[in-house]
Amino acid sequence: TDPSFIRNFCIIAHIDHGKSTLADRMLGVTGAVADRDMRAQYLDRMDIERERGITIKSQAVRMPWELDGQTYALNMIDTPGHVDFTYEVSRSLAACEGAILLVDAAQGIEAQTLANLYLAMENDLEIIPVLNKIDLPAADPEKYAKELANLIGGSPDDVLKVSGKTGAGVEELLDRVVQRIPNPVGNPDAPARAMIFDSVYDTYRGVITYVRMIDGHLSPRERIQMMSTRAVHELLEIGVSSPEPSPTKGLGVGEVGYLITGVKDVRQSKVGDTVTTAAKPSTEALPGYTDPKPMVFSGLYPIDGSDYPVLRDALDKLKLSDASLNYEPETSVALGFGFRCGFLGLLHLEIVTERLEREFNLDLIATAPSVTYEVTTDDKKTVTVTNPSEFPGGKIASVEEPMVKVGILAPKDYVGTIMELCQGRRGALLGMEYFGEDRVELRYTMPLGEIVFDFFDHLKSRTQGYASLDYEPSGAQTADLVKVDILLQGEQVDAFSAIVHRDKAYAYGVLMTERLKKLIPRQQFEVPIQAAIGARIIARESVRAMRKDVLAKCYGGDISRKRKLLEKQKEGKKRMKMVGRVEVPQEAFIAALSGE
Length: 596
Ligand code: GTP
Prior knowledge:
The chain is an alpha+beta fold. It contains 14 helices and 31 strands. Helix 12 packs across helix 14. About 5% of the residues have low confidence. Keywords: Cell membrane, GTP-binding, Hydrolase, Membrane, Nucleotide-binding, Protein biosynthesis. One of its GO terms (biological process) is positive regulation of translation. It holds the Pfam family GTP_EFTU. One of its GO terms (cellular component) is plasma membrane.
């Protein structure tokens, strides 16, 4: 295809603002998918995505569109919508010349939209502002058109008004994509360079790599080379998704399509990498390639210890389709055998645990999420700590923790309560900006460790669900952090150790000792439960000794939230854990870890 008749674009939208519905509608309107073949949410492939209504993996679809007697190829590149996948978003954007900024006409701009819009502007994309869901009675297109125009410049009249549901305005939108978004440019005679913007594992075909051609040409059966690793693969198939995969005679400048080489692991075909040919390799890789680093760590343990081999196999399988998942075996006194896993963020953690539970039928418990600390001891040694149990004993010279820049968007009435929350999480206010009449963006720097815990839940409940949040890494900072251990009769219970700010150590100690007191059954002797920083005890409770005449079932406590998990436990299989002389049912530990 002549690059002047190609348009590459993506849709930037907040979760639920209707990106999938609009994408479906475009497939219908352009005839790429016949109505009778229309599955709801064609682009969201994984079941879990469909059920939760979120898009995890980006893909591309080619659609024909005619304007003034000329047929254009429109390549729509899907972008993931969540903070944890910013790197993938940035690569999808880098594959485009333009973006549709899609905003719900009853909601207005949200933090995530803003973050992705800034990314698109950094990539010099042409932005087409669009208000969606204008069929809704609550829609206020005039108000939000002004808001959008304020944000990106231009006049409110330039903001298109559409409904993905009814199809209103969608044809005009497709025309505007052709008119406004620049065509791709590249050098057809240069050595081939294609940027990988997505890499998906398929059980039958192996890895499917989605690329945007920058220069040159790739042909079927050619030998291709990954520029980051120099690995060479044979091209078994090359084609475009329209939206069913269809093989082509190759891909040229500006085109978007897929490659299949028979590799079985997405790590061999990494997002952001440059593909060239082995025969005439390019010498210069495309800019922007990085290896995404895990930011959040958690131990995953099977509730039923005999499921350990199943968990191991499941992680090995998931890794094939998720290049950013990391894990290594770990054992815990309280929880048995499991894995220490590294994730891009909290949602990534949630998605992985949910997939493990659903696709592999596992019941899992996750330990409290932790971040990466750089701990320097008095003798000038620095260790990287992703698990509190690795925190060095003895004198500590300094501890560095990862920081993030946080953007929160909310109605202005909630500013007070949001500030209170952020200050309580050691946030430093960077700035505050009004959008439209009633919405405010608050920007903070904050330790990542303070938001991985339950920040988002608190933010949502303080703002009745109206606040939206975005964050990005922003270096590291030293802080007065300590490790708090929890001891049962003087024995440390590993899964409960936490690295916290010194000012919060006491509160953590009190919380955990009280919680365990309620959950640990009485023994023949008194069991002290202590919280300690090093050798210093900061909180203490105790479980009194059992009286000989008491037969009653003796542990209880509020475990209703995790009842679902507990019910699933096989009857008659109450596994007891010994901590020193103290006998504790594993479910007490599980309840304490997951308790509110
Ligand atoms: P994510 O995949 O989570 O990012 O969501 P999305 O932005 O793709 O939203 P989706 O298309 O799943 O739509 C979210 C909800 O809005 C669904 O319940 C849709 O039925 C509804 N919706 C989408 N477009 C329209 C529209 O034009 N009008 C109305 N009334 N509802 C719409």
